[in-house]
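Reposting from the mailing list since nobody answered there.

I have sequence plus structure tokens for a pair of proteins and want to know whether others read the tokens the same way I do. The first protein:
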Amino acid sequence: MSECIAVCPGSFDPITLGHLAIVRRAANLFDEVIVAVAEEAEKQHTCSIDERVEMARGACAGMEKVTAEAFSGLLADYCRRRGVTVIVKGLRGHCDI
């Protein structure tokens, strides 16, 4: 059976407890979880891409099977390159906007 790799993509500016809850749940379901921090050059971010990746790594420290890294371009292309088989996203409620 092949390994099931999941990706949790986002800007993570900053990474929140809600993000971490989703990552933690994904880590319980899949063999590997990548927190993929999007560069998104067209968006104005509070923190640089390197700072956001380091925050994600620090927040996920101690979670087995979870790594964090930057990506740019189309998510579909990134998933193909990394062998990702599942995309995990959270949903926001109307009161969270």
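The second protein, same order (residues first, tokens after):
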Amino acid sequence: MTITIYGVTRSRASRNIWLLKELDQPFSQVAVIQARRVADPLAADAPLNTASPAFRAINPNGLIPSLDDGGVVLHESLAINLYLARKFGGPLAAASLPEEGQMMSWTLWAVTEVEPLAMHILYNRVMRPEAERDPAAAEGAILALAKPLDVLEAHLAAAGDCMVGGRFTVADINLAEVVRYTQAAPELFASRPHITRWLAACQARPAFVAMMAARNAEPL
């Protein structure tokens, strides 16, 4: 049965789409957009969005993405990636229980230590209209990210510029898609050559390039 991803590619669904393209697994995509992008998300003629009752029946959190894999319904993009990697196996998946633990550990680290700060940078340097940006919030996040990014830099230096197992895995996808948000602050990369090289290698992969092309083709 075909895997279904609910969410536009201009969302955290990008993480799942990248992984599925790496796995060369067929999937269908239901273009659920964020309710904040719709003037009246509950209007009868509103496009399917995160406030739509039809989508809330799938994900009562009202967030994208969600996955339906033959009746297995999951939410949270990075957890979905761990599930898909384990299901389909291959080099992207853990080769042992210790590797699986490391992949989960780094994924949770990215969510707790990097993503909240990275979002302050993204919103206040890119996503919000200039008049609504808070430069101080962005600068504070940049300063606060120094410690976790130093941890990541040291890990990549020791691990050969891969997150787990000396090869490209789901852990690299999960971390790279979180760290991508910090690229709005290029000063963070000036003294971190391993992160710079690792992220460039991740983003040069054909599956990432294809995902980003689809993402950029969607309306803002």
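Reply #1 (J.P.):
I read it the same way you do. Residues 23 and 90 are 8 Å apart (CA to CA).
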